Amino acid sequence: MALNGKTLGDNIANIIISSDAPDEQKAAVKKLWEDIGDAIVNHIKGATITVAAGIPVSTAGTAAAQTGSTTSTGTATIS
Question: Is residue 66 part of a domain?
């Protein structure tokens, strides 16, 4: 699932907005949470992801022109 600040904000706003709230209030709360959602998503997208060394790979080809792919999952940390 792609990170989307507007969708995140809309989902939160829909949880907290009272169904009998005035339309202007609903719109203001939704806009506020869309802005908050964008800030959260942008913060996450700006993170550095470091993948641990040692993920098994398989390779093919000559020493000068190898291709390869991972053969298992790895562990990463976000900082």
Answer: no
pLDDT band of residue 40 (cuts 50, 70, 90) is: very high
Does residue 64 lie in a domain region?
no
In a domain, 11, yes or no: yes
Number of structural domains in the chain = 1
Tell me the average pLDDT of the chain. Answer: 92
Q: Contact, 34 vs 10, CB < 8 A?
A: yes
pLDDT at 75 over 90: no
Residue 9: CB atoms within 10 A of its CB come to 23
Exposure string (b/e) for 25-57, b if CB count within 10 Å is 16 or more? ebeebbeebbeebeeebeeeeeeeeeeeeeeee
Quote the pTM value: 0.67
